[in-house]
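Internal ticket #5521
Category: modeling
Description: The requester needs a full-assembly model to guide mutagenesis choices. All entity lines are attached below as received. Residue total reported by intake: 548.
Assigned to: D.W.
Attached entities:
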Amino acid sequence: SSTVLPGFTPWPSADAQRYRDLNCWTGETFGDVLTARAAAAPDAIAVVDDANRWSYAELDHRSRALATGLSRLGIRRHDRVLVQLPNRAEFVEVIFALFRLGALPVFCLPAHRQAELVPIATASAAVAIITCGTHQRFDYAALADSIRQQVDTLRHLLIVTDDSATALPDDARDIAEFRDEPADLPEPNAVDVAFLQLSGGSTGIPKLIPRTHDDYLYSVRRSAEVCELGSDTVYLATLPVAHNFPMSSPGILGALWAGGTIAMTPDPTPATAFRAIERFGVTITGLVPPLARLWVERAEAGNTPDLSTLRVVQVGGARCQEELARRVGPALGVTLQQVFGMAEGLVCYTRLDDPIDVVVGTQGRPMSEHDRLAVVDDDGNEVPPGTDGNLITHGPYTIRGYYDNVEANARSFTADGWYRTGDIVNLRPDGNLVVGGRAGDWVNRGGEKVSAEELEAHLLDHPDIRDAVIIGTPDPVLGQRICAFVQPADPAHRPSLMTVRTFIRERGVAAWKMPDAVVIVDQFPETGVGKTSRRDLRQLLADGAHQN
Ligand code: J2J
């Protein structure tokens, strides 16, 4: 059937036609791609992790089997399904099963807790959660069970277990029960929404990003080309694989597109990841800057496992300091590639044959000649080349609206459909971008985005806190750290950093959002219009306000 998912903003039909004519959108679905690769090279290895080694034929079979089982359970086209899994082979099986059904995975991160998952489940009206049992000493099944009890639409709780003896919550089912004999199922259309990705740092109603088979596959194909992937590629998913970067830039989907191999590691630290590189013969991976620093420092110290298969290390998600960028290639014996991307669409890369100054000093240029970029001032007028301004963009793989969110759409898109990235950039005459910072009130803590407003709202619920302002302050390793300015309700009761962190953790907030510092202020400096002045707060900090 051709009905469109309610709440999805399609591209205007003239643009959609143009992207088809240009052969950006090819009409293929994710299921089609896997079918084709499995037919062409059934025995090639598609996915490896510490416990599994699946050929393309096996992955194809598994995804069809699970799709059949999930359809027996009543999961249908357009249904939303929360997926919260660590980096392991079953992640790929699960998402391809859902893709084949036309059901939409909603890509949650392992670090998400109930303060994130309840709003995500509610905003997506999800019908099921697929998660694991205990992983890294945290009981994901119990978390999912508690989410299910708080969100009416959630009917099913499915667990990827390591063995059938695992104790599951009542009514939870092991996905092993749903690996049926594959049956023919109605297939989705390439214009359909394939999944919902999450926007970093959203407040209130989560911003869910609808990506279609057509648009996302184009970005995956172009990424695979730009990153020069082939059937000999082994891509290591180091960052949490549900994130857009390891998913598609070129990520695990790029590796599959190229007929290469996906390798999964649940732990990105050098101790584990370097062994995975040696064991799986990894050729490319993607890191955020703080991880890149850890890897470089570890490699510079010498005596590492064999990293000689590694050819490309990508760094993205947050600004990479030039000093660090210069060390990546020599330390790891690789070509560095900077990646500036966003789950909403646009991804920029430095190219593998760019001069070193471009590679270490810029965040590259758009992957597609059909991407349109403009750098504008606060009134929307283009600034002269080489001047800082706000980046806006549209193109064949950048969304035209968030899922079912009229207010966010009014804020984040121009009247003619350009996405306001919120990034301050400088477009150099050679076409490469230098990313300066963010216009909005967010902290980018080493690639993990935190909405100031979201965290402030949590703090304001603390009885000892009258007012709170979250600011990102410079940090040599993370780029930015989270500083909470707190005005106590009673000057005699000053909440400590410990108090604040414990309070936030107990509310079920993802651990990466914990403030790194608390600064007690008697009163907030104000702008002319009575709004708290973040600039003055930054100054206060620069002047050495006491942090505890
Ligand atoms: C500075 N800021 C950057 C960079 C992202 C590939 C790579 C990253 C993401 C991602 C992604 C940056 N330098 N190199 O989805 O496919 C900041 C910008 C941007 C925001 C998007 C991909 N790379 N950023 O990080 O949706 O502020 O995607 O707008 O999580 O991260 O965050 P996110």
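Resolution: model delivered.
Comment from assignee: The pocket of J2J is lined by residues 200, 244-245, 248-249, 316-319, 338-343, 347, 363, 421-423, 435, 438, 444, 447, 449 (CB under 6 Å).
Ticket closed.
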